[in-house]
Amino acid sequence: MPARQIDPPPRLLMGPGPVNGDPRVLRAMSAALLGQYDPAMTALMTETQGLYRDVFRTANDATLLVDGTSRAGIEAALVSLIVPGDRVLVPRFGRFGHLLVEIAERCGAEVHVVDAAWGETVPLERIADAIALVRPKLVAVVHGDTSTTIAQPLEELGALCREAGALLYVDATATLGGNEFRTDEWGVDVVTAGLQKCLGGPSGSAPITLSRAAVAVIDSRRSVEAGIRADDEEAAPPAERIRSNYFDLGMILDYWGPARLNHHTEATSMLYGARECARVLLQEGLDAAIARHRRHGRAMLAGVQGLGLRPFGDLEHRMTNIVAVHIPEGVVGDAVRAAMLADYGIEIGTSFGPLHGRVWRIGTMGVNARRDAVLLTLAALEQALRRAGVAVPAGGGTEAALDVYGGKP
Ligand SMILES: Cc1ncc(COP(=O)(O)O)c(C=O)c1O
Predict the structure, then answer these.
(1) Is the pLDDT of residue 228 over 60?
(2) Which of 173, 176, 181, 350 most suits a substitution to test ligand 1, by most atoms within 8 Å of the C-beta?
(3) Confidence band of 352 (pLDDT split at 50, 70, 90)
(4) What is the predicted pLDDT for the residue at 239?
(5) pLDDT for residue 234
(6) Closest CA to 11 of 293, 385, 343, 375
(7) Which residues contact 29 (CB under 8 A, 6 or more apart)?
(8) What number is the average pLDDT over the span 258-285?
(9) Exposed, middle or buried, 1 (CB in 10 Å: 0-12/13-18/19+)?
(10) Would you say 188 and 152 are in contact if contact means Cβ atoms under 8 Å apart?
(11) Cα torsion for 49, 54, 56, 58, to the nearest 10°?
């Protein structure tokens, strides 16, 4: 039987991401395809680089897209920077810190970890002590760990790393565009992201920016396969060669750079989408978009508290764009999530590992960082909780959120 045309059910995606795609982004992705060396295509690539420099708040030339989900950006950064045997320090406070450890280990690094309990940040002094002890080549950290909804303060970490001669890598997948992030001012060498959170696009493209120091490390490892150093006796010895072709940032930089040396075939529709995500964000203004995420995140937090739910984790360091709450005693969290999806078409999330089934995570990001989405979700959650046997104050969630909005639209 022939497959039917795709017709996904209507959903309001209020989980930890992905979120609903901004209609402008989805429209941009259906634009006509171009050949990869068509001047119109290379011009779009160059424009996209410029837009992401503004989004990352950086002057880095090496600002581009890695084709693949956010994890592709992480893997490209780590496999390109880490030479087997390098010492890498990971301050870890959630699931995505575990991911950094796992990828760094696969790259052959000697990985050291400074752990904080889930729901907390890693104190700067503990990171400083670990840097002094380990003397890492690279410090790799997540900015906002979606699994716990907590954001690690980064303002002083770059200076600390620079003093110690270490590079700083940050995974900003879940925070970029909706939380303050200042690549150059904070001294971050490499940042990677994704589209499916505050940038309001689909997953599948990983914006990345690299400092000169990071590019220098990659340049020193250039593979002969890049074709430009084939006759060069000083070409990197095999042990130093980047152990991935697809994620070799040296080769990817050559493809995005003026030489346009062939590597992969740029994912054209994803490029259109990533470009539109950045364009839409910058048209609103970065500061305005961050303030919008903060406002609607605060309304959601007040709303769930108004329903009598207890927030999870250190509220002083919470991400603007996701709230985590403890699932009330005796309630089957997944049953409430299923009811919200079936009855209202609204998706909320649970979490991973030790938090699975213990918390719900409710996102307000991208196009869904807006008043009606917050109020609808709170109204549906109130009803789903009541049907699950929880005594919730009538209208407690929406009233508390409306108080945060203070009568303003
Ligand atoms: C902080 C963080 N890093 C990395 C990822 C992995 O992203 P992807 O699923 O796009 O590969 C996620 C996804 O939720 C994330 O929240």
Answers:
(1) no
(2) 173
(3) confident
(4) 62
(5) 57
(6) 343
(7) 202, 269, 270, 272, 273, 276
(8) 97
(9) exposed
(10) no
(11) 90
pLDDT in tens, 335-351: 999 999 999 999 999 98
**Gap between the Cα atoms of 369 and 323, Å rounded:** 12
Measure the CA–CA gap between 89 and 126, rounded to whole angstroms. 12
69 lines ligand 1 (CB under 6 A): yes
Residue 225 has pLDDT above 80, yes or no: no
pLDDT per residue as tens digits for the range 141-162 = 999 999 999 999 999 999 999 9
CA distance 218 to 18: 31
Residue in 93, 132, 87, 100 with CA at minimum distance from that of residue 114: 93
Query: Which residues, listed in sequence order, are joined to residue 63 by a DSSP beta bridge?
Result: 209
Question: What secondary structure letter does DSSP report for 311?
Answer: B
The ligand 1 atom at the shortest distance from the C-alpha of residue 203 is 10
Query: Ligand 1 pocket, 17 CB below 6 A?
Result: yes
Question: Could you tell me the sign of the dihedral formed by the alpha carbons of 143, 70, 256, 90, in that order?
Answer: positive
Q: Which domains does the chain have, with CATH numbers?
A: 22-282 (3.40.640.10), 285-405 (3.90.1150.10)
Residue nearest to atom 8 of ligand 1 (CA): 70
Candidate of 71, 169, 176, 192 to mutate for ligand 1, largest count of ligand atoms within 8 Å of Cβ: 71
Distance of CA 257 to the CA centre of its chain: 25
Place of tokens 């402008």: 24
Name the residue of 70, 149, 152, 355 whose CB sits within 8 Å of the most ligand 1 atoms, as the mutation to test its pocket.
70
Return the number of other C-beta atoms located less than 10 Å from residue 288's C-beta: 11
Residue with tokens 């770059």: 158
What is the C-alpha to C-alpha distance for residues 35 and 19, in angstroms, rounded to an integer?
Answer: 30
Give the residue from 18, 21, 13 showing the smallest Cα distance to 337: 13
Which of left, alpha, beta for 395 (phi over 0: left; psi -120 to 50: alpha)? left
244 pLDDT higher than 80: yes
CB-based burial, 77-111: b 16+ in 10 Å, e otherwise:
bbbbbbbeebbbbbbbbbbbbbbbbebbeebbbbb
Q: Which residue has the tokens 């068509």?
A: 38
Q: Strand pairing of 138-142 and 144-145?
A: unpaired
